[in-house]
Amino acid sequence: MKRNVQDGEVFIFINRNLTIMKVLHLEHGGLVIYHKKLENGVFKLPTFDETITSQPISWQDLMAIVSNVKPINRRLKKRRKST
Fold first, then answer.
1. pLDDT the model gives residue 35
2. Which Pfam families match (predicted)?
3. How many structural domains compose the chain?
């Protein structure tokens, strides 16, 4: 990636299921990681080129991703009764 968090860069990591987001950045006291896990829904990401390893976004776009959670319907599988 050739990016450096000490240069003011913010790193955002989102899992494949789009339910967990981690944000890494540097504050005066050191590195800080924010972790957000959705119990319902998924993060709605903007379209981007999947062949590149990093995507620059604005702070406003990050706030839109965090606040714009897309609800999803999940079907629960019936459990078998154990005998």
1. 92
2. TnpB_IS66 (PF05717)
3. 1
Residue 61 in tokens: 């776009």
Given a cut of 80, whether residue 3 has pLDDT beyond it is no
DSSP state of 6: G
52 lies in some domain: yes
Q: Is the alpha carbon torsion for 61, 62, 63, 67 positive or negative?
A: positive
What one-letter code names the amino acid at 78? K
Please give the residue range of the domain that contains residue 61: 5-70
- Whether residue 79 is contained in a domain is answered as no
DSSP line for 13-70: EE-TTS-EEEEEEEETTEEEEEEEE-SSSEE-PPP--TTSS-----HHHHHHHHH-EE
| Model confidence pLDDT, tens digit, residues 59-75 | 788 887 877 666 666 55
